[in-house]
């Protein structure tokens, strides 16, 4: 969570290399974690806005890793995650939300394997990676599935119809995309990526937690609960319109 921060580089061809930015104008970088409620909201809205604006097939989402467990050196606390569901979920109920219904011992202890899978799916193209990312979010937030587990990740992938699960399994078992998770985390450190989610465009425009600001009351994350101060769903439309103008 953070306030809005936007920067624009006037000439993207003359700027120094910035590893946070898309490699081409037709991609939009989204740094996030899979068990972040604000990211689930933002990704849902980005997909909805892209379709609404007629940009499917023209703009693609390059999902990058903002692994909260590596920043916090701890599991993303379930009490904190649970406290966000009714608050953040109320902003877009159709995204798919519910409190965890499975036994405590089936709750995901890590999102690193699932984040790695999304990176691995990029071998099969942007649509495969996007679809897997969204399906894993729904598997966690709406279906009580332990996305830490290899077989669950592969089952979710197979169920998308857009990902070759056997090919994904081979990529995961090779470990060749694990380094991407760590590299993206290192790029995000030192306040270079503000929070999960943080969106970047090719021209340098970026927006943290697009359209939403919030604060915590009665204690920190895991003790208190969030209050939404401002919600502007059109913020993602503005971002994608600007991205489309760069094509």
TrEMBL record:
One of its GO terms (molecular function) is isomerase activity. This is Dithiol-disulfide isomerase. Residues 27-204 form the DSBA-like thioredoxin domain. It comes from Kitasatospora cystarginea. Keywords: Isomerase.
